[in-house]
Predict the structure.
Amino acid sequence: MSNRVEPIREKKHITAIKNLLKKEGKFRDYCLFVCGINFGLRIGDLLRIQVKDVQNSLSEIKVSFEIREQKTNRLNVIEINDDAREAIKFLFSHVDLARDPNNYLFYNTRKKFGKKAISRIQAYRLIRKWCKKVGLRDVRVGTHSLRKTFGYHAWKNGVSIEVIQKKYKHNSTETTRHYLGIEEKDVLEAYHKVNL
C-alpha cells in the first residue's frame, strides 16, 4: 500500500477549510492554507516565506516573488494571485507581523513572535486536523497535499499538463499525471465535457 498523499479534489472541501479557519480566528493557518494551495510550493519552501518576500517597502503586497527551492536549488517565481493576496492582507490586518520584514509568515506561536517558522511536523498536524474537521477522513492528506491541490485544480481548470510539469520541474508529463493523482474518472469527466 502506498503512503502517497492526495490533493484536495473537491472545491467544497477547500471552501469548508477556509470557512473553518476564518470562523475559528486562525489567521496564520488560514493564510498558510490559502497560500499553500495557490503557490504550489513544497512545504519546506512555503514555511521559509518571510514578510519581505511578499510585501514591498511601501507595505504593499507584491505581485510576485522569487524563492530558491531547497530541493532543486533553482529559482522559482511565485505569482501572488488574488486569493493569496487577500489571505496575506487578512493575516496582516489581524496580526502585527508586517512590522518586521524578517518575520516568518507562518510563525511559530511558541517561540519569539515571528522569528521562527512552524515546523513541517506542525504543518502536517494542522493540515490533517483541518481535513478531518471538514470530513476528509478517507483521503490520505499531508503537507504535500497543498502543493498537489494547486496542480490538480490547475489541471481541472484547463492548464495543460505540460505547463504544470514545467511549474513542478518534473522530467515527464507522466510523472506529473501520477503526482497529481489524476484518476480514470477525471479522464472520463473530461471526455463528457467535450461535445463537438
Summary: Strands lie at 64-68, 75-79. The domain at 11-193 is CATH 1.10.443.10 (hpI Integrase; Chain A).
